[in-house]
Task: structure prediction
Amino acid sequence: MVSVAVIIGVVAAVVLLFIILTYNSLISLRNQVRNSFSQIDVQLKRRNDLIPNLVEAVKGYMKHEKGVLENVTKARTAIMSAATMQEKAKASNMLTDTLKSLFAVAESYPTLKANENFMQLQEELSGTESKIAYSRQHYNDMVMVLNNKIQSFPSNILASMFSFRQEELFRAEESERKAVKVEF
Result:
């Protein structure tokens, strides 16, 4: 017969293996969340780098639309100084809104719309906006997986022991949830 010491050793090894695997999976998920947030930052920086070029391309055409250009610059500054994920989300949404108004005003300037530099910058910004949206979605997916792991039994016991915390989801602002009003 198998001795009690062998049984205790096997049970202890299984428990230790479980603890190691669960801890490592929590670390891996936390790092994936951090990486996903960094990817959002990379795309936001790319967008921020494109904006001064866009403003310069538009300045000559929109001399009497100074307020729009100032709002874009203020929004860009706000996103660069944001520290937390929620601050970045709010500033990013503000910048998106100001860019929408900039492009709406640009519709009134046919020569600007035909300007190759402006068109290229507009296309690059559009592509970057898509990448930001994808990065936000990926971040939220990773946060959901991590939060599920932290909340699920028995990994929640280890998560609590090792001080793993739930992460916040990247949320849309209330103004972005409202239906778009289209008028002709």
